[in-house]
Amino acid sequence: MGGNTKALRVRIKSVTSTLALTKAMGLVASSKIRRANEGMSNAREYTASLEKSIALLTSSGECLKSPYMRNSEKQRTKIIVIAGDRGMAGGYNANVFRLCAEFPEAEMIPIGKRACERFGKAVISSEHYSFSQGYELADELCIQFANEEFDRLGIIYTKYISVMSQEAQIRWILPLQKSDITVGSEVVFEPDHISVLNMTVREYIAGMLTAYIRESFASEVAARRLAMDSAGKNARQMIDNLALEYNRARQSTITQEITEIVAGSGD
């Protein structure tokens, strides 16, 4: 019995340490939620303006001649994969990689330490990714697409639905699709629609990429806080169960010792 109580004390100490860790990580995640949500909200407003501009441009028949509206039957695909820098966020990273598995022939461009580790690329942080980095990548991809080195570009990211719910999704960026928006006479593009579109597309891709990274980070933080809250509840329940088991084992040991003493005095 003595060995049993010792083993239970060790387990209680171990679970208590785990509880302290999950509590600390939950507090860190909570402290980042406000900043992450502000960044996501601002990025959504910016991309809404970008999408409206692109929709106006692609509604013009002239823009069908743009290399960025080229459609091909080859479907050589590149996908930018946005994952987290750390684990312990529930199914956040696993859901992203599960969606990646649906495109086995695609060339993956990872952003986020976990994605870089999975696809064997240089580590790029998703939390600290800047617009300038996004523009540099967008410029490179636009040149490759215009030179017909690939035919389709997508972004796998995690859509923030609520603190309790996030969903891995893919958004196809290139080729651009013709819009049905009717351009009014008050909208004037100089020197012409196609020139403006070809100049704007890099800004559009960089803006969409940065926005999806911000949204993915907000999703990661929310998923981590939820996971740590759940882990903390499980740890506390485990400690209560172990403490009860320990007290029973200790009481059994005491009872056995008293019985042995009484039996010894009778002899």
Describe, in plain words, how this protein is organized in 3D:
The chain is of the alpha/beta class and 267 residues long. 61% of the residues lie in helices and 12% in strands. The chain contains five helices and four strands; from the N terminus they run H-E-H-E-H-H-E-E-H. The protein has a four-stranded mixed beta sheet. Strand 3 (152-162) and strand 4 (165-174) form a beta hairpin. The protein is elongated. The mean pLDDT is 87.
Task: Supply database-style keywords.
single chain, 267 residues, alpha/beta, Pyruvate Kinase, Chain: A, domain 1, 4-stranded mixed sheet, 5 helices, elongated
List the helices and strands and how they pair.
Elements (H helix, E strand, L loop, with lengths): L1 H57 L18 E6 L9 H9 L6 E5 L1 H7 L11 H16 L5 E11 L2 E10 L18 H74 L1
Helix pairs in contact: 1-5, 4-5
Under CATH at level 1, the class stands as: Alpha Beta
If strands are numbered along the chain, what order do they take across the biggest sheet?
2-1-3-4
The biggest beta sheet is recorded as: 4 strands, mixed
DSSP strand tally: 4
Q: What structural category do the secondary elements indicate?
A: alpha/beta
CATH homologous superfamily grouping: ATP synthase, F1 complex, gamma subunit
The CATH topology label is Pyruvate Kinase, Chain: A, domain 1
Order of helices and strands: HEHEHHEEH
Number of domains: 1
Mean pLDDT: 87
Shape: elongated
> Any guess at the CATH architecture?
3-Layer(aba) Sandwich
Helix content: 55-70%
Distance between the termini: 24 Å
Percent strand equals: 5-15%
